[in-house]
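Supplementary material to the annual report.
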Amino acid sequence: MSDSTNHSRRSFLKSTAIVAIFASIPTSVKAFYQDVKDFILPKKSILPIKISVNRKVHEINIDSRSTLLDVLRENLNLTGTKKGCDHGQCGACTVHIDGERALSCLTLVAMVPGKEVTTIEGLSTGDQLHPMQEAFIECDGFQCGYCTPGQIMSAVACVKEGHTNSVEEIKEFMSGNLCRCGAYNGIVESIQKVAAL
Amino acid sequence: MKPFTFNKAKNSSEALKLKISNKDFIAGGTNIVDLLKKNIAQPEGMVDVSTALSAEIKLSEKSVNIGAMVRNTALATNSDLLKNYPLATKAVLAGASPQIRNMASTAGNLLQRTRCPYFYDVTTPCNKRKKGSGCSALTGDNKMSAIVGYNDQCVAVHPSDLCISLSALDATVHGLNAKNEKFVIPFKDFHKLPENTPWLDNNLPQNALITHIEVPKNEFHKKYAYVKLRERTSYAFAMISVGAALQMEGNTIKNARLASGGVAHKPWRWYEAEEYLKGKKASEEVFKKASEIATEKVKPLAHNGYKVPMLKGAIELALQNASKL
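Predicted assembly:
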């Protein structure tokens, strides 16, 4: 009986010690890891910024590394603008900055204050679609739809710039927007339709 | 992406004060943001110069000054440049996409890094990205690499279209060094060959700022051509590009300018062919001979032998197109 009591006391002490060691090691290791990380890597820089998107002003704190694309999608929940390649090669993230088409994936959001950003969500007036949106639906300007917001933003700018004099000119000035479904003919048709309005 | 501080400079002297060696300038961002994302550029801080530098194009009797912050689209559509320097506007329109041209700055265009695939693939050696690590393209896939002026340390090519035209038109690069003193570098000496420092693309002094590009007034605005051959019709870097400009009296060539992209670590001038063309009567035979003189000394690598006949054809075509204008 006494043997069994000793045994359980010992095992209680042993297991308590083990639990205590396991509980303490990860914290100190974690703290040490954080110290090393802080020593090697600079701390992230948080900036308070004020940006205007679709005529609405947003005041947010952002990491200096944030791109406009990530802030639109992750902070402002404007997920219409798509992330395709994230390296400026596909055009899926095209938005308008001060009325001109630009790639939001290559734009640091810290450079946007003082400018007006328009996304696909800001193109329609209430439930009334923009003529280019209507045209894309009527002319089958898309299949899967992933590149479509970027295509439409680029197409609106293409018409505004006046680069719609021939199919070749439209294709040249839409070359920054890739469509892997190959809806190009429908896209060109949509642009011609709006340009003729 | 490594964390970095962010500061916006109000003017050029503030920009120079903010910039210390481990910080980078950002203007249009079309190249540097990509390099940040891939951890190829790891600056401690970014200095935004987009409102600190001139975005003006000023035409004078002697030359034109193009401000460092003139966006590519503004350059390509400027009426003074269209009239007096159409080779430059044509070259700009041959590059990138409308979105990128709306963002990209003139100075940034000069400073953009090579598009050699190994420079962007951080898992492979690249002397340009990591000093002394080796050149993967030399014995690897060098389909897009140089055919002239390279060495075994780097076979990368310069990617800009605008710079080919600026090189042909004998532009000069104006800037401010770290001490806020003015400097001028002739375009032919701005970009460099790999030499023993392949990680450096140009001879811009450390921590210096480009303020504007000056292009002297010339008689090359009437007969010019920019031929760019690439893997697809638009929105791709050049396999071969040729900027040609002729100054003619009747059918006689008084002066010629011939420069190429996609062939070397810097915009490449074909001086010997230019010299040959001087005083000749324009004809298909003369243009063919000029293309042969230009390509005489090029040395293609294992996978880019195709560039030699392509370059010959592009030079002939550019000269023919220029002479017919």
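Residues 2 and 42 of chain B are 6 Å apart (CA to CA).
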